[in-house]
Amino acid sequence: MEAVLYKIENGVAIVTLNRPERYNAVNQDIIEGLNDAFNKVKNDKNVRCVVMNGSGRGFCAGADMTIFGENVTPEQRSDYIIETYQPLINKFTQLNKPVIGAINGSAAGVGASFALACDFRVMGHSSSIYFAFINIAIGPDGGGSWLLARQVGYSKALEIATSGKKISGEDCYKLGLTNKLVEDDKILEEAINWAQELAKKPTLAIGITKEDMMFSVNNSLHDTIAFEAKKQIIAFKSQDHIEGVTAFVEKRMPNFKGK
Is pLDDT above 80 for 105? Predict the structure, then answer.
């Protein structure tokens, strides 16, 4: 059974973590499957948005604790985290197409990092974000501390990370950790519908906007204005920009192609 499923529907790539018997715990098969899926998305011009979800009862239970094997030193585990999670999380954040996380059940441990690395999230009343690291006496990994702190602020992020408690779908919605809160059986449907709406928009411009936002997080207003201006050159030259202006003048709906 494939650890990560991949299919395309109406310009949307649906990426599914597929180890339901282990609550989609992250092993090497999951890592390789996600890397392969994101490479496909990046190189397929017909894919304009991504939905990521988990099969079975949970989104992702975190790292499969058997992944390291026996007699592995702490230094080797640290090297594995850097060599494995760093390039994978970069694929989420550097992809020039929007990624929607359909968070069914719990996103725990590095699964929470995966969920927060998505650009948008749809959660249900039974969904949760669970920084479980503290419960086995370790700190966050997979970029979880960076992702959480930049979405809820330092103090709240530290509270969540040190509490060892699940943050319910309702609380995630109040905190801004999820964009939409729906009934549990509507999570994937809502995420796909939203993705298909985004796929009809000027997705090249969405990718540029995503780059602008990511740049702004760690740079000054002055440098961000300059960065935006350089990216705007690409937008000004795009077919979608010409179509958008033409449609505005002709008072009709634009037909964007993501080019």
Answer: yes
How many other CB atoms are there within 10 angstroms of residue 114's CB atom?
30
Q: Which of 62, 60, 13, 72 is nearest to 39 (CA)?
A: 13
Give residue-wise pLDDT tens across range 131-143: 999 999 999 999 9
Q: How many domains does the chain have?
A: 2
Under a CB-based contact definition with an 8 Å cutoff, are residues 247 and 254 in contact?
yes
How do residues 64-97 score in pLDDT, each as one tens digit?
987 766 788 889 889 989 999 999 999 999 999 9
Residues 156 and 241 occupy one common structural domain: no
Give a yes or no: residue 255 inside a domain.
no
Among candidate residues 17, 20, 22, 23, the one with its CA nearest the CA of residue 3: 17
Final residue in a domain of this structure, among 159, 176, 199: 199
DSSP state of 46: T
What size, in residues, is the chain? 259
Tell me which residue range forms the domain holding 86. 4-199
Which two three-digit tokens encode residue 73?
């030193």
Instruction: Give how far Cα 26 sits from Cα of 102, 113, 144, 166, 211, Å.
Output: 17, 12, 15, 19, 27
> Is there a single domain that holds both residue 161 and residue 46?
yes
